């Protein structure tokens, strides 16, 4: 007989409790599932309150949607009263009639122009979408009855009327408001009645004829606003004073406008700002101090599609960005990346500098990007990557090096093992439409043994060396379309048998693929063969069988592969899978290929000529700071202070004029100095000035602070 101790009894009780608890949870889960099914079924049987439209289920637990999109409506339809709370009523269109050009018509589009009194009588709506109509008249009582329910409203005007503030003033529960195509040249406190919208969190003003805001427009208004989206407004100057009261903004978009510069202190009061997008403007100048106030909160910064060159990027370098994760500088006019530009962006994860005019990347240009995982350098004018350019980017996962117009300035893009030193963890390399130095490329790919995705379409490669992918054991997606490959053998793809899931071979010159190439490929899911002059004989019978087998469960698979015969003549343009009976034959001299075993073949991974060195961690608490900076047309005077001077063993100052070919001027200053004067600088120019301090404590890295000055 078993004797139970006190602990044993507790264990048995715990087991029994757990068993009962699991049973109760299972029972509860079944009840919830049954309840959801009943609710969904019940809603499916509920009538739709408007005959012209359909009612659809929204996300589970969110209510139904009344879909009146593209119903050729010219007026708001009549609704049957309903006690149901609907997630949304949409009267929008798939196409925007305003954007239709050349007299194009949209017969199915709604063309609602008038919102009459109590237009939505009898409905309970959380969302109302009236976008992509051209509304020219709105009754003051149009939204009567929606006051207690409506949280989201989108409405478009006809470009002649101002927004219907009087009608909207009743909607005190509104959280999101989007206004487009209204005419209100000057928005001021008197003509913009938004005082009652105390719960508004998102405001969008798009493609309105608004050229100015009054200084008090938002003063003591919209206390919960966290997102402001300004788009297509004809403003040349950023409204600094006007947006100053919006202290709780977390997202600010000012896009497709005509902004030419960002002035000092533009976002100084927006200390909660996390996302700032200023793209699609004409910004040429970032004035020193323009990002003051948001360095400790901002996570996303979009400056793409502007007119910025490297001489005007100083404020990016001088601001201490403690949270910044993503910055987009693509589609500007940069000729180079200034050294130290990203030094204060230690948490940056994603960097886009695509579609500029960068011809070379100097060593040190990417210094400080210890946490960078995604780097887009595509569509510049690079003809090579210099040795150790990426040495400090040990966490980089995605690198896009596509080149402008498919060619660099010298005709060939050179990527060597030395140039990717430090990128052992790279998982995705994009070189699409870049004419490459083929010999160096294949060596480099062997070094990048953690690659998962390799995009080499349109790179003009002619042959894959045997055993090329021996060390690329993780390669799952291989894009080789639009090249000059003519031979594909087992040896050329050896190493990818267990990892390769997709291969794109479209528009090459491949005539046959014998069964051994993919005989051991256990992960292969897709293959693209369109545009190859395939010879359809017994050698590709395995391919026909594979396509037919996959198409049995995936009917469109055959069209994805899209392999068409080009020879013999009687099978020209016949899809492989359509060849019947014994149509795939070979002559009497044909010998079945014997698949090889390459396991014992010796291979070595190419190595760079220098060893990768890890970057030291950075202590973000600086021992010193600038206290005063003054400038004339030819001099800059700097004063600084140190918290603990005794910690410092030596000091160094560096300054450079920002421009295409920056020269860094180092100056050693006494460790107890607190002042320095830089002379003979150029007038009307931006200078990046950085101070470094070496500490007696060798376990701590050098400290660095920077400031950007524009001379008179």
UniProtKB/TrEMBL annotation:
GO cellular component, one term: plasma membrane
Matches recorded under Gene3D superfamilies: Ribonuclease Inhibitor
Domain LRRCT: 532-587
Keyword Repeat: yes
InterPro entries per UniProt: Cys-rich_flank_reg_C (IPR000483), Leu-rich_rpt (IPR001611), Leu-rich_rpt_typical-subtyp (IPR003591), LRR_5 (IPR026906), LRR_dom_sf (IPR032675), LRR_TM_domain-containing (IPR050541)
Record's keyword terms, sorted: Leucine-rich repeat, Repeat, Signal
SUPFAM superfamilies (alphabetical): L domain-like
Entry-linked Pfam families: LRR_5, LRR_8
Entries under SMART domains matching the protein: LRR_SD22, LRR_TYP, LRRCT
Protein name: LRRCT domain-containing protein
Organism from which the protein derives: Mytilus coruscus
Lineage of source species: Eukaryota, Metazoa, Spiralia, Lophotrochozoa, Mollusca
